[in-house]
Design goal:
Layout (H helix, E strand, L loop, with lengths): L20 E4 L16 E7 L5 E17 L6 E2 L12 E8 L8 H11 L4 E3 L2 E3 L2 E5 L14 H9 L18 E2 L9 E2 L1 E8 L5 E9 L3 E4 L4 E4 L12 H6 L14 E10 L3 H18 E2 L9 E10 L5 H21 L10 H4 L5
Parallel strand pairs: 5-8, 15-17
Antiparallel strand pairs: 1-2, 2-3, 3-5, 3-17, 4-8, 6-7, 9-10, 11-12, 12-15, 13-14, 13-16
Length: about 350
Amino acid sequence: MRAIGFVGLAVFALLAETGGCVAQEASDPAGAGITAVEGLRLGHFTLQERPTGCTVVLADNGAVAGVDVRGGAPGTREVALLDPVNRVQAVHAIVLSGGSAFGLDAASGVVRYLEERGIGYAVGGHVVPIVAGAILFDLGVGDGSIRPGPECGYRAALAAGAAAPAEGSVGAGAGATVGKLRGLERAMKGGIGTASITLDDGLTVAAVVAVNAIGDVIDPATGSIVAGVRTEDGAGFADARALLRAGEVPGPRGEVGGNTTIGVVATNATLTKAEITKVAQMAHDGLARTVYPAHTPRDGDTVFGLATGKHLDEGGLTRIGALAAEVMSEAILRAVRAATGLPGIPSVADLAPPGG
């Protein structure tokens, strides 16, 4: 087992004895974040050797699924199957992973977990679990030869539960960073966040998202930067909006390829594949309100949608999609605010003034 290169980080203080991974468990009661949607469970696993990992959303009874990919350099699995014209209607899990394209292997472990439990699409006398996923690039944080694989996907599935999920520097958000427009030396820590809304009529819309952006995370309520490109002294924000307007060109060394915000929006509403695909599209509005710039040629911004069919909504698709954008935005803010800093890559809490 390789020694961890980041000493003294709280997120890696508790190490698993087997598999090189750390289970992330939340003690909060159910009802917060994406697990507020009945029928969904979430599990994280974080690699011990460097900050990276994967996050799994399980739908044991299946969920109608869609996806919208807007980044110009995505890394995905099974997205063609989610096209409304294609036959399979339900998926059994969505996997979000670090490790760039190598991290797609984490989904194989989730497939194994589901097959062992007889969960999947029945065909030809077999049960085939339908597992879609997407990855983000975090190979520049620590030893990039260490990536999530099938075992971590399996263990994330084992850790999945309906309790309020852990947030910040865990799972797929462990190695996530933001504010890389001027390289990692001016970046800040990204992470994973989750949020939900439940209305009086029982409709629930929720999101989980791993935030790994080239630019800034902005609070759309105030227009202020929450996390992003730091100034030369490292103490403030350079403002990606101002930098790009001034003609800032991303550097040539490759760090700026380390982008992507990937997530899942979910609802208990009864929707078709086409309808949940529209919800995923509308959720990107929340991403674009909060991440600047978003959907660039060198990122893989991807949002999956899940509908569990537990609620007959009479408010219409417009309401669900608008709420999806809202919870996506809130989950992004929660991701960076909950993150734990790394040496040279501070978190939001690290930059906050004493007593602020």
